[in-house]
């Protein structure tokens, strides 16, 4: 099946620094990727939709200036958490549809990035 | 919008059967997914239903009733490795096919 990778798998940073997380589709092209955040014992919350060649669309309540998304190519989307604070500590997961459009897309998830802000 | 409800926790013994129910409310239903997520890992795809009925895949089966806004995931011959969180997710046409997830059901399999 389709493979999605994320890097890094975990990161610890100081408060106020920025952290970049990469999401790659390894064996297929993804014009759309999704970024989720998951706090302990909670479900996945969609943060934004990353669109290749255009601006990302953010869910209500997600600060676009704090969570910068760049979809640089058909296989790479990056999420940058700017000026991170302890409350941003979470599990960040990306996903990509396994087909180019269509109602039967299955989203394939990356392995996730555990961010801890001290 | 969607209201996706599933039980928080379930416990069963090895070799048994467990059924995880999921109810949802949507407009423009476009399919229901079940994912398995082990602690600290990303979700992995289990099943997809868009038409009414039962989809069987080995030990796992998923059922959908669109008129009732109801689905269940059936896990048979439970194994210890099945201990995980099971997420029900709904795709909605009006929502650009994005997935909305339920809170997940933590299944604990005991020996």
Summarize the structure.
The complex is a heterodimer of chains A (118) and B (111). Chain A is mainly beta and 118 residues long. Chain A contains no helices and eleven strands.
Topology:
The complex is a heterodimer of chains A (118) and B (111).
Chain A: E1 4-7, E2 10-13, E3 19-25, E4 32-38, E5 45-51, E6 57-58, E7 67-73, E8 76-81, E9 90-97, E10 107-109, E11 113-117
Chain B: E1 9-13, E2 18-23, E3 29-37, E4 44-49, E5 53-57, E6 60-65, E7 70-75, E8 84-92, E9 99-101, E10 105-110
Describe the 3D structure.
The complex is a heterodimer of chains A (118) and B (111). With 118 residues, chain A is mainly β. Chain A is 0% helix and 51% strand. Chain A has no helices and eleven strands. Chain A has strands at 4-7, 10-13, 19-25, 32-38, 45-51, 57-58, 67-73, 76-81, 90-97, 107-109, 113-117. In chain A, strands 2, 4, 5, 6, 9, 10 and 11 form a seven-stranded mixed sheet that branches. Chain A is globular, with a radius of gyration of 14 Å. The termini of chain A are far apart. The model of chain A has no long low-confidence stretch (mean pLDDT 90). Chain B has 111 residues and is mainly β. Chain B has no helices and ten strands. Chain B has strands spanning 9-13, 18-23, 29-37, 44-49, 53-57, 60-65, 70-75, 84-92, 99-101, 105-110. In chain B, the strands form two sheets. In chain B, strands 1, 3, 4, 8, 9 and 10 form a six-stranded mixed sheet that branches. A four-stranded antiparallel sheet of chain B has the order 2-7-6-5, with no helix packed on it. In chain B, a hairpin with a 4-residue loop joins strand 6 and strand 7. The termini of chain B are far apart. The A-B interface holds A 1, 34, 42-46, 49, 91, 93, 95, 97, 103-112, 114 and B 30-31, 33, 35, 40-45, 48, 50, 87, 91, 93, 96-104.
